[in-house]
Amino acid sequence: MFTDVVIFIRPGTLHDFRSHEIADQLTLLDAELFYKIEIPEVLLWAKEQNEEKSPNLTQFTEHFNNMSYWVRSLIIQQEKAQDREKLLLKFIKIMKHLRKLNNFNSYLAILSALDSAPIRRLEWQKQTSEGLEEYCTLIDSSSSFRAYRAALADVEPPCIPYLGLILQDLTFVHLGNPDLIEGKINFSKRWQQFNILDSMRRFQQVHYDLKHNDDIVSFFNDFSDHLAEEALWELSLKIKPRNITRRKTEREEKT
């Protein structure tokens, strides 16, 4: 007698998963690394930027960069324009759920990919470009990231902040203020550093209650399958050569 054999086939594309489930798994991966970061190594990074002395922070930063390049690679490796468009819209949906989860780290990693030059320069539907522009407003660097800071101030944990801005603020405080004033400890500088790091410490104390999904995590594959910057540009230029607009204009003038 033969028994039925059930074969599980691993999903082949990102579209095989629901956007909110992907956001959940991105958040769990971020959280696992975020909770490991120790406050002293963040403070030390602002002074020395030494990877060996800030190993957990370095791992978290590398995770951010790998994720961002993984997103860029997935989109730009699609041969058809409609497939690139569909995938970009998928990531915008994922960002929507990441925002609900207060996961600003993955949110920024994806946004930095979608807004990167090799991706942004390609042809997109007007509705898609306008939708992306709306998400960019949260992390607008003008006015010292005012929109993001306001959003972060209203957040209730759990939350994973964008560490890039925390490091930027700490570096600014470190370089702009001496450790000692007339031979005495500069308590104003220490207070500024404490306020920046205290919000991060507060977010580390509250954990997410999400379920692990092995299929999605396996699909991510540690975000190791991504192209380098040079390869991304080569594909971007292959899809849309630099002088394509100029040639089109010249042909229109001749007619």
Automatic annotation (TrEMBL):
Any Pfam family hit: RasGEF
GO cellular component, one term: plasma membrane
Sorted UniProt keywords: Guanine-nucleotide releasing factor
The keyword Ion transport is assigned to this record: no
InterPro entries referenced in this protein's UniProt entry, alphabetically: Ras-like_GEF (IPR008937), Ras_G-nucl-exch_fac_CS (IPR019804), Ras_GEF_dom_sf (IPR023578), RASGEF_cat_dom (IPR001895), RASGEF_cat_dom_sf (IPR036964)
Domain Ras-GEF: 18-242
Protein name: CRK SH3-binding GNRP
Taxon lineage: Eukaryota, Metazoa, Chordata, Craniata, Vertebrata
